[in-house]
């Protein structure tokens, strides 16, 4: 039986158990995570998908974001990817998703002049891997995303929120909706509602060891 709320540790253990013991490839988990996010974007009327920006960093949260961008793109939707961080540091799964986005020639940029030009923004910057206060270009990007009129969809954790404590590490995304994988996170309390927005738990086939 899987607990309804995970700590970061439990999320990582469940992820590792599913991949290494159950044998479901991490790429499958990433695809299921992306499908859950893309489905919510396409069925929730709060999200106007006329012009979507997916902001991705180089961890697996970014990989989820890149897969979301591709899923929207193949539906004929107008999608742009803003890639943050050093691509050379990207995880294996995120490198795979970058390659797929490039196959489809999805626009991938490293700067955005006007975030207000977008009707929906997807936050694929940091998930449970947030390890220190957000600074520099990452902080500026989060602040520009929050300042835009677009509704924000956060993937797994609103970036900048510490998923165990609900603490804001420097600055954090203010999402309309967060689609979180496998279980709510400990830090998703009433106090962090301005950052998480409405929380949806996606069953992506990740369960705790039993
Ligand atoms: N739970 C599941 O079963 C699944 C989760 N998925 C997604 O994977 C992320 C976790 O991915 P991970 O690579 O561990 O880390 P993140 O992408 O969250 O980000 C960490 C990344 O960013 C760097 N970093 C951390 N803090 C900072 C900072 N303050 N400034 C700059 N850079 C920072 C760090 O070095 C890492 O590179 C999870 O949230 C889900 O979205 C799977 O895709 C599907 C299954
Ligand atoms: K995120």
Automatic annotation (TrEMBL):
K(+) binds at residues 61, 123, 159. It is an enzyme of class 5 (isomerase). Keywords: Isomerase, Kinase, Metal-binding, NAD, NADP, Nucleotide-binding, Potassium, Transferase. Binds 1 potassium ion per subunit. (6S)-NADPHX binds at residues 60-64, 127-133, 156. It catalyses: (6R)-NADHX = (6S)-NADHX; (6R)-NADPHX = (6S)-NADPHX. Its EC number is 5.1.99.6. Pfam families: YjeF_N. Its cofactor is K(+). GO terms for molecular function: kinase activity; metal ion binding; NAD(P)HX epimerase activity; nucleotide binding. Residues 11-210 form the YjeF N-terminal domain. Belongs to the NnrE/AIBP family. NCBIfam families: yjeF_nterm. Catalyzes the epimerization of the S- and R-forms of NAD(P)HX, a damaged form of NAD(P)H that is a result of enzymatic or heat-dependent hydration. This is a prerequisite for the S-specific NAD(P)H-hydrate dehydratase to allow the repair of both epimers of NAD(P)HX. This is NAD(P)H-hydrate epimerase. The lineage of its organism: Bacteria, Bacillati, Bacillota, Bacilli, Lactobacillales.
């Amino acid at each position: 039986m899987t607990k309804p709320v995970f700590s970061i540790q439990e999320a990582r253990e469940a992820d590792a158990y599913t991949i290494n013991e159950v044998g479901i490839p991490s790429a499958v988990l990433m695809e299921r995570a992306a499908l859950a996010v893309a489905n919510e974007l396409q069925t929730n009327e709060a999200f106007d998908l006329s012009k979507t920006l997916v902001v991705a960093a180089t961890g697996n949260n970014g990989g989820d974001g890149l897969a979301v961008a591709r899923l929207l793109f193949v539906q004929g939707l107008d999608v742009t990817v803003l890639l943050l961080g050093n691509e050379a540091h990207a995880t294996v799964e995120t490198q795979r998703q970058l390659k797929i986005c490039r196959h489809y020639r999805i626009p991938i940029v490293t700067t955005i002049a006007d975030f207000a030009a977008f009707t929906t923004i997807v936050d694929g910057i940091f998930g449970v891997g947030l390890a220190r206060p957000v600074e520099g270009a990452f902080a500026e990007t989060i602040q520009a995303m929050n300042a835009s009129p677009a509704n924000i969809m956060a993937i797994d954790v609103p970036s900048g929120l510490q998923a165990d404590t609900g603490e804001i590490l420097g600055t954090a995304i203010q999402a309309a909706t967060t689609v979180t994988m496998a279980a709510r996170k400990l830090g998703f309390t009433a106090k962090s509602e301005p950052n998480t927005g409405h929380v949806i738990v996606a069953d992506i086939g990740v369960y705790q060891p039993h």
